[in-house]
Amino acid sequence: MRFEVTILGTSGALPAYGRHCSGVFLRTEHEDVLIDCGEGTQMQLRSLGLNLGRTSTILITHLHGDHYFGLPGLLTSLALYDRKTPLTILSPPHLRARLAPLLELDRFDFPFSLEFREFTAKDLTPVISLKSLELFAFPLRHRIETNGYLLREKERPANIRKEKIEEYDIPWPAIREIKGGGDFVTATGERILHQELTIPPAPPRSFAYCSDTLHFPELANFVRGVDLLYHEATFLHELREDAHAKGHATAREAALTARDAGVGTLVMGHFSSRYPDVSAHEEEARAIFPNSFAAHDGWKFSVPYLGRSEE
Known about the structure:
Elements: E1 3-9, E2 23-28, E3 32-35, H1 41-47, E4 55-59, H2 71-80, E5 87-91, H3 95-103, E6 114-118, E7 125-129, E8 133-139, E9 147-153, E10 159-160, H4 162-167, H5 172-179, E11 184-185, E12 191-192, H6 194-197, E13 198-199, E14 206-210, H7 219-222, E15 228-232, H8 240-245, H9 251-261, E16 265-269, H10 279-286, E17 292-294, E18 300-302
Parallel strand pairs: 3-4, 4-5, 5-6, 14-15, 15-16, 16-17
Antiparallel strand pairs: 1-2, 1-18, 2-3, 7-8, 8-9, 9-14, 10-13, 11-12
Helix pairs in contact: 9-10
């Protein structure tokens, strides 16, 4: 059961040292989601063998160019491919107004429905429900309005115990109701409780994306317990004053958030162009939170599915 994040770009405002601007791609069994779309995103998608065929939603964190300048080219390419599937883009306010003159949105129709939803999070807030995912937004602290995003699998039904099907001669039509929380009444009138017939489902997997932001203690509450956290680490901690002046965090501060939130894995990106090598970011973070990684473009991080096979 796939739950995999591909890092499309790990650079900050300037692409440097082979690093592209911000973008990550979440792939699941049923649907995919693109988060941020910096310059070169569609080239990265193509080079990594990824496409937006199962993507109905793009999430943009904020309106600095390194997080959305890839959208015009990407949307135009989707039109050239004659995409028909509707697409929703969620962002803080004014994204549509900025793109409209370039794409001539009010003069020419795309072959697919394109909806802009503009929203600034004030707390952890549900924003979109997909087939298998719940999408949440939460506030980050940057120089302009900025959303972080949390993507969590929906609760799965319980797993039926195979041996109970035979033991109680359960017909197949009754299995769906049992998995959904119901009991089963045998032919003799005996009620068998749901808990006896099923195994609890695996806990939903989750991914949170934080770029760009200052470090602030409340952030840990928004991303508490996620399996995988992507957090910007623009600077090393020795340059924390510069980081804070520009609305960014350090590798050490990213690790503090990961530790305080009790996440599974920390993945860092959005590295300043002053760093040709980011191994020091990883070392700095691991001193606080050992399961930390300074990402490279094209890296994939999978969250394993801990459930059992279902009937």
